[in-house]
Amino acid sequence: MVSDNSHNxxxxxxxxxxxxxxxxxxASKIDVAEVAKFAETLPGVVVSRDYKYMCSDAGQDxxxxxxxxxxxxxxxxxxxxxxxHEKTFRTATQRGGINPFLCxxxxxxxxxxxxxxxxxxxxxxxxxxxxxxxxxxxRHVALEKRREPVLQSVLVVGGGIxxxxxxxxxxxxxxxxxxxxxxxxxxxxxAQFDKTFPTLDCAACILTPKMxxxxxxxxITLWAYSEVIHSEGYVGNYKVKVRRKARYINEDxxxxxxxxxxxxxxxxxxxxDEFNVGLVKRKPVYMSFPQAVPKIVVIxxxxxxxxxxxxxxxxxxxACDRQALDFTQTxxxxxxxxxxxxxxxxxxxxxxxxxxxxxxxxxPNVYTSLEIERMVTSSxxxxxxxxCRDGRVPKSVGIVHCVxxxxxxxxxxxxxxCCMASLKLAYLLKEHTGAEIYNFYIDMRTPGxxxxxxxxxxxxxxxxxxxxxxxxxxxxxxxPEEENHLIIxxxxxxxxxxxxxxxxxxxxxVGIEPQADASVVRRxxxxxxxxxGFFLERHPKLAPVSTATEGVYLAxxxxxxxxxxxxxxxxxxxxxxxxALLDPGFVEMEPMTAYVExxxxxxxxxxxxxxxxxxxxxxxxxxxxxxxPMLCKGCGTCVASCPSGAIHxxxxxxxxLFDEIQEVLAHA
Amino acid sequence: xxxxxxxxxxxxxxxxAYEESFLAVCKILGLEMEExxxxxxxxxxxxxxxxxxxxxxxxxxxLALAEKKNMDxxxxxxxxxxxxxxADHYYADYPAVRNSVDKGLAAEGLxxxxxxxxxxxxxxxxxxxxxxxxxxxxxxxxxxxxVASYYGCRFLRPVAPFDDMRHPQTxxxxxxxxxxxxxxxxxxxxxxxxxxxxxxxxxxxELTYRLIKDAQKAEADVIVTGCPLCQFxxxxxxxxxxxxxxxxxxxxxxxxxxxxxxxxxxxPEELGIQRLIVPGIKILQEKGILGDKKADEKKVPVAAGxxxx
Amino acid sequence: MATLxxxxxxxSDRDPEFAAQIRRMPGCENLNRCIQCATxxxxxxxxxxxxxxxxxxxxxxxxxxxxxxxxxxxIWLCASCYQCQVECPxxxxxxxxxxxxxxxxxxxxxxxxxxxxxTLYREFYNLGTKNGRISEGALMVNTVxxxxxxxxxxxKMLGLRLLRTGxxxxxxxxxxQQSVLKAAIQATPPINGKESS
Lengths: 668, 309, 197
What we know:
Distance between the termini of chain C: 45 Å
Order of helices and strands of chain C: EHHHHHHHHHHHH
CATH superfamily of the largest domain in chain C: Alpha-helical ferredoxin
Strand content of chain A: 15-25%
CATH architecture of the largest domain in chain A: 3-Layer(bba) Sandwich
Oligomer: heterotrimer
Number of domains of chain A: 5
Largest sheet of chain A: 5 strands, parallel
CATH superfamily of the largest domain in chain A: FAD/NAD(P)-binding domain
Number of helices of chain A: 17
Low-confidence stretches of chain A: 1-7
Shape of chain A: globular
Strand order of the largest sheet of chain A: 10-7-6-18-29
Mean pLDDT of chain C: 92
């Protein structure tokens, strides 16, 4: 049933067997010399050697020289996992003058010496594995990597500081960037912040120049108030559909003069202002904040009297001297093609109502850290004045750390930024009000340049730090001086006392969690999530901005909580990865893909539903499955699922596997 | 060169052997010590614990007296040295201290301008005559005597002007210079508990026990110190310590100036060696440093004490 | 109301002015820097005897829990060896804080449970300021009689030895001119961390 035409029986198979000591990693448990001696006896093996470090230059040269001297045409290397050194030994094989895919690795370290207890059995197992490798390598055939062109443009999804940084880096390198942002303006969370820690420089002052640069950059196509709705294709060749929501404004005409907002028939705000996290109301026609990019107003159809079908004076229309208002506008879908995608979709903050004993929503003077960010901003809704909802200027403020962090009941992880953000808010609140500030923390985590120093500064300035997770925020007074206050009850684990601290204002340092629709985005770009819901990097140390999908990269908090400096650095890294992909102009694809034996395929589409990479389509005319080798990752699912045995996979041909199994069993 | 000698209270009673030996060594080395007129108690740790204004005034007053004479002040007592040095630093660093002290001193017509050095014999002998000069004058090398130098707290903390705070060496160098062997042990700078010796002896003795034990583990024959409080605490309570910790043996505790003086040719009686509670003569004779006076040996501490006391 | 197993500390138990006064005492200005690493407690040769470790004293002192810190035995057991102070990673003058707290306890008229060290300090101070010098014999005898009368007799042998070796006497040591020291002490403004001083 398996076609065996790839193997040329006329060719004499000459195998070289090379076994590595890996220092003592392998040699301490496996008698490598004995395995080498054994391998020499196997059919087809011409030369067999052991060496201390096969991966060293000298070790590789051994393979290169032996290929030439012994006219070898197959190589088996018994060493570590192919994850580590398959590439090394394939390259050495190629340097010896034969096709790199004629080399096969046998993993006697992770599967042998590291897991074995007994030297004799470990050595026997290594022999069996060696025999299996020698048995299967006979069937290896020469394979070629495929080259495909790479489109010279990049899609950046999300216009927070991560997306902005990535887009500017790529655009400055001469690549065309499509920056797609869901909100009416770019800027993300950073635009909502007042100051940045630990330097306390103004967030807007350092962010808005970058936002304007994005808005005017010739290499950047900025689509705000837009969402990616579809993505297909493969590395270097993605086809993406973007829904551009109707702003009801002619973008080319609007100058952001705000006259229409001024003249809206609603004289005051009618709906929670998202940008100011609900601290104030906004009108149906609005601009998020004065430095918004693009500097264009937007009309919210749900609250606009005209668009929601109610009665309206339509006083906005004559107010615009450029006739930019367009109530007939509908959403559009743009189709673009890009070589790479950077996902920078950010985070949302923890919903403090999920911790009811902190009183958010019940006590008006309990705030989230984001609300306080807006409140202390001079351009914010209170123009920087810190007042409680009851109108009092707080004389004492309690900042509760780790709300929705380090908590198995909500989010298990540390949100990383809240300690420093809380310190910053403590500083600002003290500066604005002179209030006594109490920080309630579990651990202070200040790992970053100048962060510990900032913490020390706050200690020295007399802020109170009470180590203990707050048990509850209550208005139940036990003492006269607690009346009309919110009382924070906590064990101060350092003094050893249970303490009650009455305060006027409570700030909940809410943690960072994945966006609500992270799983939708994940499916859109075919990337994975770790179990908490943040997008999963390919390798936590060595490929932190790559994903399992080639050509899709991550930046910012969508991959995990991080602060602005780390986000910017990561965005730069993602841009660099995209550049490294785009710049050569082509990609090389591994050849270990699956292919369909057309004559056997019945067109049942079983494989199509199984493929996790969407690599299989159906040729309607010929009624057979077609595998796009660019998308195929060589996972083998389709091969196993095909009821007709019509699908094969390079390097994992059935006969190769059967031979390997047979030889292993023969030794056992 | 002339120095303002500040004996402090201990060198006039429990630590008088320190005064005797220090002055004897100075005489041999040609260092002229002129006792400060009308000096007063430095205040030790007590004044500081009761009233800090007077505490600093009392300390700095002695410095001002020396400065008036235009002489560096030499304080052999470790406690006095540490207290005076700290007062000098804090006088410079804290306006509150300076304000109080200046007003206090003004009542006596004194002022302090920080123009003098505060010196300890340990460092003074190492630098002013110098180790080379001392070596050239050795008459009776301390061959074969294994010495554990005990520094205690105040030469090292809170400021260590002349030595490594965590591994001090000055006293060891002096002892090596006169031919002794060094017993190296980690507890050399740990607290002896002297401040509590008179009030909570049990705790103080636990600390002292550790020092003696550690020195004996390093095979020390004797301990030397540069502080009368340490010397007293280590020397006087060995009976009680050994009663609760039989794993330590009696060990003589000398002032380092006693052994220096001996090496430079002074006689044991001039150096107050007979004043030790744990007798020190025997080990010196055993090592052949002192001549064989077997006949008097056993009576030495008592007899000499009676003569000089 | 049932007996509380553990007392709650209310904000009214704190005295922020007290904490501020401590910070104004010489050597105590870095008090607030403390990150509660407990190096002090670990290195202190006497911390095992203390009812509160030095770390906890620092925490309570900076928070202004005056009654707690002034009544602990820690401050009186501190032997002023400065080991904590020189090893403190935040350069807090911990020994100086202990001095400051001792002064404040005396100012507040607190008689500690473990009374001996305070008695010794008082005797020392009185002798030292009155006569200008300490008569060690008198000091030791007075302190031992006042604080450990039972030990007095067990020290008899040591006393005799000290008398014999000339290290101990009944003579009262005095400055030749005590009046000048008295005048200086009287003219010295207190250093107590109070803002007026």
